[in-house]
Design goal:
Layout lengths: L1 H24 L23 H5 L29 H11 L2 H5 L22 H10 L14 H14 L21 E2 L15 E2 L10
Antiparallel strand pairs: 1-2
Helix pairs in contact: 3-6, 5-6
Bound molecules: heme C (HEC).
The site of heme C (HEC) has 25 residues, from helix 4, helix 5 and helix 6.
Length: 210
C-alpha cells in the first residue's frame, strides 16, 4: 500500500513539474525578437507602434489640418526593386485575388488597380488597411502576415494602382479617333506596372501587341 502511495506521489510531482515547465517556456504573445536575432535581410519589419497609431484613418481632420498625425509614413521597402514582384506573388498566395480579383481588378472587394481609394492611397493607409482590416468586409491580416509581407503587398498595390491616362479605356466611334483608344496588352497585365504598357489601339481595331 505504501509503495502505491509513493508511485502516485511521484507521478503527481512529475505532472506538476511538466506543467510548470510548459508555462515557463511558453512564448508570451507579442514578444519582440531578441536584439541581434538573425533576420532574412536588413529590414526587420518593425515600424514603431507610436508611428503606426498616428496614421490617420480618414482624410477628415479636426481643424482642417493633420497636425500631429503621421500622414507620410513611408514604405521601408520603397527602395527595394523586387518588393512589388514579391507582393504580386503574396497577393495570390494569401488569396487577396479571391476578393479583389486577379491583378487587383476588383470583385467582391473594390478594385485596387485604379486611382479611387476608400481609405487613402498613402503607403501608411494601405498598410493599416491590410493590418487592421476595414469595416465592410476587408479582413484584418495583422496577426497572420509578417510585417515584411504586408509592406510587399503595399509595394505591389501602389505599383498597380498607378493612375492610367485620362483617355484610358475611352471608346470613341468618330474617325479619326480623338482621343485615341488605349489598352494594356493582355500579356502585360501580368506585370506589376501594367499601366506603363498602355498602347494606342490601332485604328483598324487590331489588338495592341498581338
Ligand atoms: C474576404 C474578401 C477579401 C479578402 C480576402 C481581401 N480583401 Fe481587401 N477588401 C475587401 C473589401 C470588401 C474591401 C472594402 C472594405 C470597405 O469598404 O470597408 C477591401 C478593401 C481593401 C483595400 C482598401 C481599398 C481602398 O479603396 O481603400 C485594400 C488596400 C485591400 N483591401 C487589400 C487587400 C489585400 C492586400 C488582401 C490580401 C492580403 C485583401 N485585401 C484581401 C475584401 C477582401
Amino acid at each position: 500500500m505504501d509503495k502505491l502511495r509513493w508511485i502516485v506521489a511521484a507521478i503527481a510531482v512529475v505532472i506538476v513539474i511538466a506543467v510548470a515547465a510548459g508555462i515557463f517556456l511558453m512564448p508570451s504573445p507579442g514578444t519582440a525578437p531578441a536584439p541581434g536575432a538573425p533576420v532574412a535581410t536588413g529590414y526587420n519589419g518593425a515600424v514603431p507602434a507610436n508611428a503606426m497609431l498616428r496614421v490617420p484613418a480618414s482624410r477628415v481632420y479636426p481643424g482642417g489640418a493633420p497636425t500631429g498625425l503621421n500622414v507620410a509614413l513611408s514604405n521601408p521597402l520603397a527602395s527595394d526593386p523586387d518588393a512589388a514582384e514579391r507582393g504580386k506573388r503574396d497577393f495570390d498566395t494569401f488569396n487577396c485575388s479571391g476578393c479583389h480579383a486577379a491583378n487587383g481588378g476588383g470583385g467582391m472587394g473594390p478594385a485596387l488597380s485604379d486611382a479611387n481609394w476608400l481609405y487613402g492611397s498613402s503607403p501608411g493607409a494601405i498598410y493599416m488597411t491590410i493590418v487592421q482590416g476595414r469595416a465592410n468586409g476587408m479582413p484584418a491580416w495583422g496577426a497572420m502576415l509578417p510585417d515584411r509581407t504586408v509592406w510587399e503587398l503595399v509595394s505591389y498595390i501602389e505599383s498597380i494602382s498607378e493612375k492610367p491616362g485620362p483617355q484610358f479605356g475611352t471608346t470613341i466611334s468618330a474617325a479619326p479617333q480623338t482621343p485615341p483608344r488605349e489598352q494594356v496588352p493582355a500579356n502585360r497585365m501580368q506585370t506589376v506596372t501594367p499601366w506603363a504598357f498602355t498602347e494606342p489601339q490601332p485604328p483598324d481595331g487590331t489588338r495592341p501587341g498581338g
